[in-house]
């Protein structure tokens, strides 16, 4: 009885598919017909799963394949129900394609280009697509490794236009989107999620549809693999851009007229939107944010009120950034992370002009920077060329964005904390030390101290930080003085120069803040006790087993008795004891 029922179901489903492939249903019955076809495909899939011999798979395959090609060729007549049917057929191809010698990869790409590029705004298709990709994530990564990396911009359209119900499914899928060719482009894509919402809303208003001009065009130039050559070229371009920006090279050709300025802003915004609306990964986008009026142009495009979709993007993007950064620290190789850092430095001050969103996104970026440098301290040595930016950041005659100044302070702290990359990077440490010297001497000799406005809500709690409310220049000099002391402790050949620097600060009590010259004086005193100096200021990089290097992170489980309490208590004068830590260690030995 069961066999007869299955045979009747099989015959009915095959006839229905054959009829659908030959003839198009009447418009009045199209929806009902599509529902019947979807159920037929699912029924055939279930029957193939129950068939242990595997003969049924070969019998069903010709009609399934014709149906797939029929719906993919629908073009402008494609309906959301077609997308659901194609997803059911793709599941059949993924599970049984090997049995009938069917390569699923072209079919998957055809679905993205011909169907999803038109139907991504439909809630049912969007949810079904994310569920399909999550369900088959392992198989796709193993046998179609470049698929998700190539089409991640199209998936970002789904989450940009969809509601919060899709958030969890997309967050589950995001780690699978990270690949060698997509890792770098993913970062600006996440940061520009609010801009993508504006681009989609603008497209709908202007054309009445959400199908971009290039939406269904097959692109044959996926992003190239990241290489050190590409990184070096990108990094040099970045430094040149930042150098021009801080020395007035960009936008210094005179004021534009009002009409020309508006036209330029509109052109730049349209170019950004065109890049964001692409369906396939073509590598790193153009540097539209180098246009100085981009934030203002986006503010105008947003209008007076924020749409619900835009508010959703503001909430979601920082969460996606955190997932992206977690995957980067866990799975991505050092060369790609090192290539990401210059892009991150540049985008810290190039974000959508919403205060809450930009504050949260910058916080995530800076936390990732410190985590990456902690995990791989040698990045500091590789990125030592970033020192070229520091003189511009700390000169008072330039208007420096708060975010960029805060990033420079955090990098300054990391240079000292990780010894300029460790004891094996002496050349890089020397260059970084010279940069810190330059910053210190410029601030000491300047009659007008650099004033960098840092508000309490952008404060990052990092070791060595001062309390909020301390004058900006004092905070800067405390970072620099501490970095100089730490760097010279790790690289002993820099000690003479460090003593000269600290002595200059200690003698400048009428120029600098009291906290700065007291700190410099304390560091000078520490340098007369090498063992204590190493325990307090020594870098954890490369010295973990050094007898005088204390692991402060172990303080919750181990007793730490070598802290110079007279320093922590800010008492005046020399220590009240006459022994050094080296004497204690020798006695214990």
Count of DSSP helices? 27
Largest sheet: none
Note poorly predicted spans.
213-256, 387-399, 447-470, 543-548, 559-575
Structural class: mainly alpha
* Average pLDDT figure: 77
User: What share of the residues does DSSP label as strand, in percent?
Assistant: under 5%
Roughly how much helix do the residues carry, as a percent range? 55-70%
Transmembrane segments: 140-162
Protein name: AP-5 complex subunit zeta-1
Domain AP-5 complex subunit zeta-1 ARM repeats: 33-157
InterPro entries: AP5Z1_ARM, TPR_AP5Z1_C
In words, what does this structure look like?
The protein has about 600 residues and is mostly helical. Among the domains are: about 120 residues; about 140 residues; about 150 residues. Helices cover about 65% and strands about 0% of the residues. It has 27 helices and no strands. Helix 8 runs antiparallel to helix 9, helix 15 runs parallel beside helix 17 and helix 22 runs parallel beside helix 24.
Short description:
The protein is mostly helical and 589 residues long. It has 27 helices and no strands. Helix content is 65%, strand content 0%.
Topology:
Elements: H1 2-22, H2 30-50, H3 55-72, H4 80-96, H5 104-119, H6 123-135, H7 137-143, H8 147-161, H9 167-177, H10 183-191, H11 193-207, H12 228-247, H13 258-276, H14 294-302, H15 308-331, H16 334-347, H17 355-375, H18 378-382, H19 390-393, H20 402-417, H21 426-445, H22 472-490, H23 495-506, H24 514-527, H25 530-537, H26 565-568, H27 581-588
Helix pairs in contact: 1-2, 1-3, 2-3, 2-4, 3-4, 4-5, 4-6, 6-9, 8-9, 8-10, 8-11, 9-15, 10-11, 10-15, 10-16, 11-13, 11-15, 12-16, 13-14, 15-17, 17-20, 20-22, 21-22, 22-23, 22-24, 22-25, 23-24
């Amino acid at each position: 009885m069961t066999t007869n029922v299955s045979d009747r179901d099989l015959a009915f489903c095959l006839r229905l598919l054959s009829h659908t492939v030959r003839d198009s249903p009447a418009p009045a019955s199209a929806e009902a017909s599509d529902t019947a076809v979807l159920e037929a495909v699912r029924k055939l899939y279930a029957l193939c799963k129950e068939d242990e011999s595997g003969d049924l798979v070969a019998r069903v395959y010709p009609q399934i394949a014709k149906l797939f090609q029929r719906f993919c060729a629908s073009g402008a007549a494609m309906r959301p129900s077609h997308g659901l049917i194609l997803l059911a057929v793709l599941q059949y191809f993924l599970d049984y394609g090997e049995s009938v010698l069917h390569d699923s990869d072209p079919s998957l790409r055809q679905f993205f280009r011909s169907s999803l590029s038109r139907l991504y705004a439909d809630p049912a298709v969007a949810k079904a697509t994310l569920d399909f990709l999550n369900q088959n994530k392992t198989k796709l990564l193993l046998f179609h490794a470049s698929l998700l990396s190539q089409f991640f911009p199209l998936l970002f359209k789904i989450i940009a236009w969809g509601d919060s119900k899709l958030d969890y499914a997309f967050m589950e899928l995001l780690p699978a989107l990270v690949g060698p060719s997509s890792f770098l482009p993913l970062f600006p894509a996440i940061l520009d999620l609010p801009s993508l919402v504006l681009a989609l809303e603008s497209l709908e208003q202007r054309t009445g549809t959400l199908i971009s001009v290039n939406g269904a065009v097959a692109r044959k130039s996926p992003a190239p693999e990241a290489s050190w050559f590409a990184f070096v070229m990108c990094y040099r371009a970045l430094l040149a851009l930042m150098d021009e920006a801080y020395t007035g090279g960009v936008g210094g050709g005179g004021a534009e007229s009002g009409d020309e300025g508006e036209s330029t802003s509109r052109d730049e915004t349209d170019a950004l939107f065109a890049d964001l609306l692409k369906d396939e990964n073509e590598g790193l986008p153009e540097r539209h944010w180098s246009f100085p009026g981009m934030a203002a142009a986006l503010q105008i495009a947003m209008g007076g009120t924020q749409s619900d979709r835009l508010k959703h993007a503001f909430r979601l993007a920082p969460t996606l950034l955190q997932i992206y950064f977690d995957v980067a620290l866990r799975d991505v190789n050092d060369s790609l992370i090192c290539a990401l850092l210059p892009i991150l430095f540049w985008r810290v001050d190039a974000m959508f002009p919403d205060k809450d969103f930009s504050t949260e996104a910058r916080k995530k970026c800076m936390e990732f920077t410190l985590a990456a440098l902690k995990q791989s301290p040698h990045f500091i040595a590789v990125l030592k060329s970033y020192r070229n930016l520091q003189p511009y950041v700390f000169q008072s005659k330039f208007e420096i964005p708060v975010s960029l100044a805060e990033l420079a302070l955090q990098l300054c702290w990391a240079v000292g904390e990780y010894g300029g990359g460790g004891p094996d990077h002496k050349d890089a440490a020397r260059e970084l030390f010279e940069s810190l010297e330059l910053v210190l001497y410029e601030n000491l000799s300047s009659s007008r101290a650099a004033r960098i406005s840092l508000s309490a809500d952008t404060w990052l709690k990092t070791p060595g930080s001062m309390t909020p409310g301390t004058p900006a220049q004092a905070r800067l000099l405390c970072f620099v003085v501490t970095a100089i002391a730490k760097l010279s402790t790790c690289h002993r050949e820099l000690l003479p120069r460090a003593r000269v620097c600290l002595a200059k600060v200690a003698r400048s009590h009428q120029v600098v803040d009291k906290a700065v010259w007291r700190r410099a004086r304390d560091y000078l005193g520490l340098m007369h006790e090498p063992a204590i100096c190493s325990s307090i200021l020594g870098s954890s990089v490369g010295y973990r087993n050094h007898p005088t290097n204390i692991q402060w992170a172990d303080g919750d489980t181990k007793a730490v008795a070598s802290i110079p309490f007279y320093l922590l208590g800010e008492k005046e004068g020399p220590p009240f004891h006459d022994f050094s830590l080296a004497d204690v260690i020798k006695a214990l030995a």
